[in-house]
């Protein structure tokens, strides 16, 4: 039989899905050849998640068809998807926190038990063999899932799916919590499975992963598939341009406002044992970058500046006045806003609506004599939704229903509504796609243009170089280098982060 006569392992054609006024899919199609690694990309809200939910039987489309190996599938359900050999690795880790690793891996298929119950020793040995086979690692004996790191939990979830020997394996952002070594093990496992004939659908915001791993890519935008390409033949940046529908050369809008008076000054600041003798000044209208490896103290420092950790040494001055930031309420009173790294846990109230989240930090501004002015609130919320370009069915839609990028816009919008003087941004674009990043970068630049001071903590060195005026590098709790963004490259920043030493020429220019 010729290759052309082999039917696709998966063919989803003409899918339409609407949720109230929102049309999530508008005739989208996805065709995956058997035995290949197929990438699926698109910005948040492009329709990827809805497409995958349809394949998993979690959403019923209003129109369209699904076929596996040429055979039509009607009325897909979660049980049916599992029965047909479709396995999913979701971004959220769906594991029992009180189970051991062995119990989590073999839950529902504990074939090593006797009539007196399951033999835990056997489960543990089988778990160790599976982890070694797929990832080349071992985990602590008897450890509970809740005691594992995020990366270790993700590895357990992936291994559990692989043990079921699926015919199609769907990865949804599988590397978001993995270290580079673990990513390499995962890619090696996926390639081995491809050699054995397994079909893989791979969804990721990390385009470099798509380029390295995938045989073909489907690009989605606004509920439709807009391109089908070989990622190895697309020029650098080409996938990003297909995703957002325009060139990415203007991804980083550079603000032109000259820095004004100091809004924040640190002198000899220490935080516990992780930060010591940190001094710097941040001016109005300036974007100051902060970076360093895990354990550098950068994270401790930004949390202390919002009152989440005690400052144990030195002085902090805000707008020329000494400040004691003992609690977040005091930081907010001083005009400080924090956009946290984990938006879902600390940035938004997921079950409240967009309106309530956007006005949560500025209710006093919208109230008279203790009563909330509903008309003023609604006008402000509609203005913010337009300014932020939040994709939603309405201002009262629960934030939980928004894509990750749109949730992050709401977190930013909550503080923009308050018109903070100092914005502390902790990894503000982590886990969002390139289109959402572009919008968040625009909002950061506009806040600086209005005269706010921006302290941006990020591990994305290109992001720092593209957005910031100056960049500070922390190493083992102290600032070891300061660079101007113009004329500095990512290699220089990385060297300082890794070694605690820096290029003296660049530092002198700063």
Cα radius of gyration in angstroms: 25 Å
| CATH architecture grouping of the largest domain | 3-Layer(aba) Sandwich
Instruction: Provide the CATH top-level class of the largest domain.
Output: Alpha Beta
Quickly give the structural class: alpha/beta
Q: How far apart are the termini?
A: 66 Å
Itemize the secondary structure elements and their pairings.
Elements: E1 10-19, E2 22-32, E3 37-41, H1 48-55, E4 63-68, E5 71-73, H2 78-83, E6 86-89, H3 101-106, H4 120-135, H5 150-163, E7 168-172, H6 180-195, E8 199-203, H7 207-213, E9 216-221, E10 224-229, H8 238-244, E11 262-271, E12 275-283, E13 287-291, H9 298-305, E14 313-318, E15 321-322, H10 328-333, E16 336-339, H11 343-347, H12 354-359, E17 367-368, E18 371-372, H13 374-388, H14 404-416, E19 422-426, H15 434-449, E20 453-457, H16 461-467, E21 470-475, E22 478-484, H17 490-499, H18 504-509
Helix pairs in contact: 4-5, 14-15
Overall description:
It contains 18 helices and 22 strands. It starts with 9 loop residues before the first strand and ends with a helix. Residues 112-117 and 504-510 have low confidence and may be disordered. The chain folds into 2 domains: 3-244, P-loop containing nucleotide triphosphate hydrolases (Rossmann fold, 3-Layer(aba) Sandwich); 262-335 and 420-509, Rossmann fold (3-Layer(aba) Sandwich). It is an alpha/beta fold and 510 residues long. Helix 6 links the parallel strand 7 (168-172) and strand 8 (199-203). Helix 4 crosses helix 5 and helix 14 (404-416) packs parallel to helix 15. The strands form 5 sheets. A 6-stranded mixed sheet has the order 6-7-8-3-9-10, sandwiched between helices. 34% of the residues lie in helices and 24% in strands.
């Amino acid at each position: 039989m010729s290759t052309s006569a082999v039917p696709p392992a998966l063919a989803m054609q003409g899918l339409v899905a609407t949720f109230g006024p929102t049309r999530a899919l508008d005739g989208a199609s996805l065709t995956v050849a058997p035995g290949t690694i197929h990438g699926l990309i698109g910005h948040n809200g492009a329709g990827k998640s809805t497409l995958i939910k349809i394949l998993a039987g979690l959403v019923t489309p209003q129109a369209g068809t699904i076929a596996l190996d040429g055979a039509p599938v009607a009325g897909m359900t979660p049980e049916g998807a599992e029965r047909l050999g479709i396995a999913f690795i979701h971004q959220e880790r769906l594991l029992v926190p009180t189970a051991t690793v062995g119990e989590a891996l073999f839950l529902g298929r504990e074939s090593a038990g006797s009539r007196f119950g399951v033999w835990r020793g056997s489960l543990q040995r089988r778990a160790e063999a599976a982890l070694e086979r797929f990832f080349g690692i071992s985990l602590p004996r008897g450890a509970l899932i809740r005691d594992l790191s995020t990366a270790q939990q993700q590895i357990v979830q992936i291994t559990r799916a692989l043990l079921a020997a699926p015919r199609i394996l769907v990865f949804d952002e599988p590397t978001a919590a993995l270290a580079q070594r673990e990513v390499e093990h995962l890619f090696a496992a996926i390639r081995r499975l491809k050699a054995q004939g397994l079909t893989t659908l791979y969804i990721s915001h990390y385009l470099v992963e798509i380029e390295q791993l995938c045989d073909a890519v489907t690009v989605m935008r606004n509920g439709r598939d807009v391109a089908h390409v070989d990622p190895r033949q697309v020029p650098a940046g080409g996938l990003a341009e297909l995703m957002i529908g325009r060139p990415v050369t203007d991804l980083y809008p550079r603000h032109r406002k000259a820095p004004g008076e100091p809004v924040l000054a640190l002198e000899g600041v220490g935080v516990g044992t992780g930060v010591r003798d940190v001094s710097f000044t941040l001016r109005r209208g300036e974007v100051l970058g902060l970076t360093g490896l895990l354990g550098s103290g950068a994270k401790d420092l930004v949390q202390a500046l919002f009152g989440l950790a005690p400052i144990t040494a030195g002085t902090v001055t805000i707008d020329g006045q000494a400040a004691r930031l003992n609690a977040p309420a005091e930081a907010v009173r001083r005009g400080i806003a924090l956009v946290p790294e984990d938006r879902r846990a600390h940035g938004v109230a997921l079950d409240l609506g967009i309106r309530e989240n956007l006005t949560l930090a500025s209710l006093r501004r919208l109230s008279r004599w203790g009563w909330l002015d509903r008309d003023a609130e609604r006008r402000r919320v509609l203005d913010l939704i337009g300014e932020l370009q939040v994709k939603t069915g309405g201002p009262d839609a629960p934030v939980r229903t928004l894509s990750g990028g749109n949730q992050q816009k709401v977190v930013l919008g909550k503080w923009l509504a308050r018109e903070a003087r100092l914005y502390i941004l902790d990894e503000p674009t982590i886990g969002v796609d390139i289109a959402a990043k572009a919008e968040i970068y625009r909002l950061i630049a506009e806040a600086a243009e209005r005269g706010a001071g921006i302290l941006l903590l990020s591990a994305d060195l290109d992001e720092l170089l593209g957005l910031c005026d100056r960049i500070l590098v922390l190493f083992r709790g102290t600032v070891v280098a300061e660079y101007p963004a113009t004329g500095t490259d990512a290699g220089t920043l990385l060297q300082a982060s890794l070694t605690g030493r820096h290029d003296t020429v660049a530092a002198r220019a700063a």
